[in-house]
Amino acid sequence: MRYTMNSLLKVLYPNRVVEHLNTNSYALDIVKIIMGVVAIFASSQISIPIKPVAITMHSVILCIIAFTYSPRLSFLTILTFIFIGVMGLPVFCKFSSGINYFLGAAGGYYLGFLIGTPVMSALKDKLAENFMNVTIICIIGHTIFYLFGVSWLASMIGLKQAIYSGFIIFIPSGLAKLFVFSSLFSYVKNLRQK
């Protein structure tokens, strides 16, 4: 994890800054949280606007965060993203913000992100990071996302419609994104081990 993040930091910041961050774990954690929040924000804006919940690139970014951050840091990153969005910074889909948006159709998914991403992060520390395990971990995380999302949505539009609109319709794009992430992650990991 540290190798991957430090490589990215060296591209973005001068060596002196990286050296300082390496000796100050608190500062490094803050930088990681900021980078994670920016990445989630960017993924929020890449969307297919269907109702009641848009298809976004959240799942790919959340998998990246889960596999490069600790469970604690991934939780804090998602919590920070949700907090600044609720407080009014337009970080949600289509530059939305505020408590009303969070309490709308997508709110359950954000709560699912808050729980599911650290779970993926914890599981990746316990299992070998091969293609099959990475895929299984991502499926477990996404199951948590959808359990929260569909349950929340069901309180607004009913369970049957929530299962269709909040889960079934996402299956094709979700599987494609999981396959791409698992393949790329396994490929990059194998390259680093050579």
UniProtKB/TrEMBL annotation:
It is found in: Cell membrane. The keyword Manganese does not apply. InterPro entries: BioY. It comes from the Bacteria. Its main location: membrane. The chain crosses the membrane at residues 21-42, 48-67, 74-92, 98-119, 131-157, 163-188. GO terms for molecular function: biotin transmembrane transporter activity. Keywords: Cell membrane, Membrane, Transmembrane, Transmembrane helix, Transport. It is a multi-pass membrane protein. GO terms for cellular component: plasma membrane. This is Biotin transporter. It comes from Rickettsia felis (strain ATCC VR-1525 / URRWXCal2) (Rickettsia azadi). The lineage of its organism: Bacteria, Pseudomonadati, Pseudomonadota, Alphaproteobacteria, Rickettsiales. The gene is bioY1.
